[in-house]
Amino acid sequence: MAASGGWSESVESLVGLDSASTLVLVFAASDVGPEPFAELRAALPLSLITGCSTAGQIRGRQLSSDPLLVTIVRFEHSRPTLAWVELSGAADSAAAGRKLGLQLAGNGISGPRHVLLLSVGLDVNGSDLVAGLTAELPAGSWVSGGLAGDEADFDQTWVYCGDQLRERGVVAIDLGSDVDVSYGSEGGWEGFGPSRMITRSEGNVLLELDDRPALALYKEYLGMLVDDLPASALRFPLAIESPDGGTSYVRTVLAVDEDSNTMTFAGDVPVGWSARLMRTTTERLVDGAAGAAAASAQPQGSLALAISCVGRRLTLGEWTEDEIEAVADALQSTTGTIVGFYSYGEISPTDGVNGLHNQTMTVSVISEHLP
Question: What DSSP element (H or E) covers 220?
Answer without folding.
Answer: helix 214-222
